[in-house]
Amino acid sequence: MAIEWVIAYLLLGAAVGFFAGLLGVGGGGIMVPVLTALFLAQHFPAELAVHMALATSMAAIIVTSFSSMRSHQRHGAILWPVVWKLTPAILIGTVAAAYLATALSSLALAVFFCCFMSYVALQMLLNIKPKASRQLPGVVGLSSTGLVIGAVSALVAIGGGSLTVPFLTWCNVKIQHAIGTSAAVGLPIAISGTLGYFLAGVSTDAVLPQYSLGYVYLPAMLLIASVSYFTAPVGAALAHRLPVATLKKVFAALLIALSAKMLHSVLTS
């Protein structure tokens, strides 16, 4: 691999980790559009670029999700009974959606990604937070929610925080516990999503680039994860020193711009 691509993946990992630590978001919102552009620039097959970006992003999120979960566990902020009830359905929804994603075109995935990230950006720009209006549902309700969270997370390669945190807050869970529980749920989402994209990639007839493990492009995943693991704590340390509210608005605008660029890249490839 040429040195310029190595540098690009390392810089992407640094940005992903920093924003994840600073704002509690990041992941696929940054990685998928940038990886799509990088893969197309490296002349990967255009019809596979978005699929590989989603899969590689999911795999890279495993490391940051594990680091985040450990941090919240040290603060006792994870509601493990909720995690255990959500996780089985999340695993099913994530793996199933990863398989579904491979049956969709790059354009369809790019459009869905763009729409969802616009929703996330709007939440951040307007600081929309659901009011606590009910209690946590039973196993059936949590399982149904887990299926949706897992499926959407696989289709946009996120750890699920933009869905899990609002849901738990709506169910009268304290915000600290909502964020901590969401971080714990993010790990099975990342692992099962990666597994789904791996299995789907192994069974495809498409010719994948060298060093791919299913749809996961290993060099990019390893380089991004190796840096994001160290920059996430830096972002977290600065969370109380920097104007986070202003940075969230800047980040929201960045999400929209990157998503639009991704859609343009797919349309013109």
How would you describe the overall organization of this protein?
The chain has helices at residues 3-23, 28-41, 46-74, 80-103, 106-126, 139-156, 161-170, 175-203, 218-238, 244-268, and strands at 212-213, 216-217. The longest helix is centred in the N-terminal third of the chain and has 29 residues, at 46-74. It has one domain (3-268). The protein contains 10 helices and 2 strands. Strands 1-2 form a two-stranded antiparallel sheet.
Average pLDDT figure: 87
The rough form would be described as globular
Q: Please tell me how large the radius of gyration is.
A: 17 Å
The chain-level structural class is mainly alpha
Low-confidence stretches: none
List SSEs in N-to-C order. HHHHHHHHEEHH
- How many domain modules? 1
Q: Going across the major beta sheet, what is the strand order? A: 1-2
- Helical residue percent band: over 70%
- Work out the helix count: 10
The fraction of residues assigned to DSSP E strands is: under 5%
Major beta-sheet overview: 2 strands, antiparallel
Distance between the termini: 22 Å
- Please count the beta strands (DSSP E, at least 2 residues each): 2
Protein name: Probable membrane transporter protein
Family: Belongs to the 4-toluene sulfonate uptake permease (TSUP) (TC 2.A.102) family.
Subcellular location: Cell membrane; Membrane
Membrane topology: Multi-pass membrane protein
Q: Can you describe this structure in just a few lines?
A:
This protein is mainly alpha-helical and 269 residues long. The protein is 79% helix and 1% strand.
